[in-house]
C-alpha cells in the first residue's frame, strides 16, 4: 500500500452492509480477532502505517516504490515450483 494520504477500510459497515461469514473469517485470520471486531463493527478507514501495524497490508511504501516492491514480492512467490499452477487454480475456482 502506498503511504501518505490513501486510506483503507470497510466503508460498507458505515452503510449498514454486513460482511459475509467467509469474509469475516478470513479477516479475523488476517488481522486478529480484536482488530477485525473494530474494523467490521465500526468501519474505520486507516492509513498505511496503521494497516501495516495490524497486518492488513504487508508493506507501506512511497508511491514510486509500489510497483517495484510488488514485482519483487511476486517474483518470490513465482520462484516456488508449482506456484503459477496454484495461482491459476485459485483464480479459476473464484
UniProtKB/TrEMBL annotation:
InterPro entries found in the cross-reference section: ClpP/crotonase-like_dom_sf, Enoyl-CoA_hydra/iso
GO-annotated cellular components: mitochondrion
Residue intervals passing through the bilayer: none
GO terms for MF: delta(3)-delta(2)-enoyl-CoA isomerase activity
GO BP term, example: fatty acid beta-oxidation
Cited PANTHER family: ENOYL-COA DELTA ISOMERASE 1, MITOCHONDRIAL, ENOYL-COA HYDRATASE-RELATED
Stated name of the protein: Unnamed protein product
Taxonomic placement: Eukaryota, Sar, Stramenopiles, Oomycota, Peronosporomycetes
